[in-house]
Amino acid sequence: MEVVCSRLSLFPERSYTVTISARIVNGVVPRVVCSTCVAVVKHNHRRTSRDNSATTSSTRTRTGRPHTSTTGGHARKLNLDISPHRAVSAVRLMRIELGGAFADLLNEQGKGSGDNEMGYVERTLGFRTRDLEDRDLRLVTEIVGGTTRWKRYLDHLILSLCHDQNTIKSMEPLLLQILRIGFYEILKLEMPPYAVVDENVKLAKAALRVGAGNMVNALLRKLLMLKEKSLLPEPKVDGDERQRARALATIHSHPVWMVRRWINHLGLDEAVKFMTWNNTDPGFSIRVNLAKGFTRPDLVGELEKLKVPYKLSQHLDDFVRIRTGMQVIIQAGLLKNGFCSVQDESAGLVVRVVDPKPGDSIIDCCAAPGGKTLFMASCLNGQGSISAVDVNKGRLRILKETAKLHECDQVITTIHADLRALDSNILKGDKVLLDAPCSGLGVLSKRADLRWNRRLEDMEELINLQDTLLDSASNLVKPGGVLIYSTCSVDPDENEERIAAFLLRHPEFCVDSADKYVSPPFVTEGGFYSSSPVKHSLDGAFAARLLRST
Ligand SMILES: C[S@@+](CC[C@H](N)C(=O)[O-])C[C@H]1O[C@@H](n2cnc3c(N)ncnc32)[C@H](O)[C@@H]1O
User: Fold this and answer.
1) Is the shortest distance between the CB of 416 and ligand 1 below 6 Å?
2) Is 99 inside any structural domain?
3) Which of 148, 235, 246, 263 has the highest local Cβ count within 10 Å?
4) Within 13 Å of residue 486, how many CA atoms lie on the same side as its CB?
5) From the CB of 348, is ligand 1 less than 6 Å away?
């Protein structure tokens, strides 16, 4: 029996196998929700059980478009009216929001995640638009990153502008993404407002139905009107500590628990500066690969040829900073050829704290995907060894392949193992780096969705793991050797507190100040390396050098 999904019309060209449990009464076919839409909805945790049940007799979507295609048929709809960057952004945002569920549905078509973006658009939105140009790609990156970061704030405004407070909860996932894109473009990007309204209305009509387009039109116009009159419904920062944190969390679009934590650790002003940093578009640093004989002047020459603006790093000789032009660098093949890699200077400075020298035997305990391993290997100049340990086989494979590409594989041995189970009688090193799994709270500007995936409960779990891994890593250090503990977090519980607890358990270790390895602005009172987004305009990172006496 051909079944028509009455729910989301997200996947108009798919055919479905659906088990209908409702009975046909008086010849009326019950309205059904296809398994695909149910899966999407379930993963969004937004549906009530009422929505998943068969209710009425309609057999068409609200556009009147059947939600099935003729079996095996691929009637392509070409819609050149739709701006491709918005269509791609909406699909990417669906993938971020619905995670594995949505990606799996896309892959069900037998096409992996490497498939091109327009294929995704076609399968999920139901039409083809023109291919992305470089400018579109830049816009996709900007819109997807920005909309993801500002999600809490955008949802607050969408909710405030809807008459019914439940509207946002029951809203179709795709409609919500289109609204967020429109709100973000109007509020945070300097885009011509009426074009934004027009384009997002067209997208909603083509991908969903006319009614969805009308809703987008009404809400975006209302937003424009309120913005022009400076009447946006902003939360007020007053009340008790919790209420103030809630308001700040909405204004700066972060989870409440993070805001409370930062106000405690940093004070209000610094916490606000930190959130502002997390919401800015990150620049990137590029490290040249000396192991391949490619030098910073070589990279500068290439960037000038490609007309990519750059600045030389003030902290590291092998690094340059760029704000734009990453696509151009990728297309020129500079990364694919192994001439350079993307690495934040904050991570490069951790390697400076390790201080790898030709002849060293180094163990990198949590090595994959290998950013620090490769930088350390390039410092060895072909002499010495790095044992790169990681529990994640896939990520370790990437490390191995990249090491080959970077021509520094001769000094690297990969070891697929859980550090906690590694035999310390077999493996010992002069320098042991533990770049521990952490909350990543120092890299929130680069990883737009991370703030929404981390929970307060994760912190305790991570702290316990960090303690256990520190104990295991310490067993691998030769007497007279050094243990370096690092994170990409700015949270004292994951940094200074872990070292203090470790030193109590291990009196055979003492702190070796980082001031011999990095410049004074990066050295804390306790002798640790710490980079701060607010102070140094770099990602947040931490490293402690601990000398073993016996
Ligand atoms: C912060 S990442 C390391 C990043 C890496 N050092 C770099 O610079 O590219 C943490 C790594 O720890 C690994 N890991 C987590 N638990 C582990 C364990 N018990 N044993 C070994 N590796 C582990 C994860 O698989 C992950 O690759």
Assistant:
1) no
2) yes
3) 148
4) 29
5) no
